[in-house]
Amino acid sequence: MKRLFALRGAVRAVNNENDIKIRSITLYDELLKKNSLDEKDIVSVVFSMTKDLDARNPASALREEGRAADAALFVVQEAAIIGAMEGVIRILIHCNLDEGSVPVHVYQNGAELLRPDRQKQ
Fold this sequence. Notes:
Layout: E1 2-12, H1 17-34, E2 42-49, H2 58-64, E3 72-77, E4 88-98, E5 106-108
Parallel strand pairs: 1-5, 2-3
Antiparallel strand pairs: 1-4, 2-4
Helix pairs in contact: 1-2
C-alpha cells in the first residue's frame, strides 16, 4: 500500500541558464534515486528560487529533458529574508511511496548548510 509523502531538497546555483538547469535536474534525479521513486508516483513538484536566480526556470528545464511529464510543476520566488543564503533552488516533491518508507531529503552544492541535521541520511 502507498501513501503520500513530501520530499525536500535544495541546491546552490550560479545565475546562468546552464547551471540552474544542471543543478535542478541533478537534485531532482538524486531525490528519485535515494527514495527509489518512479516518476509515475509523483503528484507534483514545487520549486522555489531566491530572487538572485532569474536566468532559468527549473520546471521548464525538467520538462525540456522529458522529466516529470505527468506531474504538476510550479515555480515560485522565495520570500526575501534578511541574511538568508543566496543562490538557492529548493524543491518539494509530493509523491506516493510505500507505506512505512522513510523519506530521504537531499541538499547539495553548499545547501547542506541549510539543514545540517539532514546530512546524516
